[in-house]
Prior knowledge:
- The protein is an alpha/beta fold.
- The chain has one domain (2-112, 168-245): Rossmann fold (3-Layer(aba) Sandwich).
- It is 39% helix and 13% strand.
- It has eight helices and six strands.
- A six-stranded parallel sheet has the order 2-1-3-4-5-6, sandwiched between helices.
- The protein is globular, with a radius of gyration of 18 Å.
- The mean pLDDT is 91.
Amino acid sequence: MQLFCLPHAGGSATAFLRWRPELPADVEVLPIELAGRGTRHDERPAIDAASAGADAAMRILAQRRPGVPYAIWGHSMGSLVAYEALSSLRERTDDLPGHLIVSGRSAPHIPLKSNDIHKIANDDAFIAAVDTYGGGTKEALAEPSLRALFLPVLRADFQLSETYAWAQRAAVDCPITVVNGVDDLSIDRPGVDAWRELAATGIDFRSAPGGHFFLYQNQDIVRSVVADVSAALQRRRIELIGKGTQ
């Protein structure tokens, strides 16, 4: 299968590159680079999830291999972008993902526990607030040149995430897997459980040791989730082939 990955606020496609040697050769890991970072550092980062999702959808379609099943995995802010990308894909194509994997974020129609971080004007105070997620932001942005490069992206991402307003739409019509770190203080159980309200066909809840960035530190849960999703997609593909020959 193809596995398209969308990163957390301030993250880039490189966050998922370490997955490639960890996963089977028949899983093609395809990180989506969002505007403002990596190879797209000269582009203005999106400040609304719908725009980011539409952009991600176009980049997914550009890399699709016809006939190969695919899934989308979004982490934290990336979960929100993945959800919006799925909505955009519905409007553009019949080539839709067979699975949606989300981690590190409550369901998009549930208000965040806090939505004030993007409003903090003082850079040091903003970075300190972001650092409560546990990603080492303060240390990463200690170098002035790195701060100048990445702080605007981080601010845009938090604005995107914290100002999101959910719009009523059809339920997600592919299975959803929801994965979270047991020590992630940025989410709560009701908000996570609310993903169930958006699922039309089935949902699986998984947890793993660690905090908000568990999936970059715990490759066992990544391998387990991907193996299960890949097997489910293959079963579905065989079923469809069988129906087509009847």
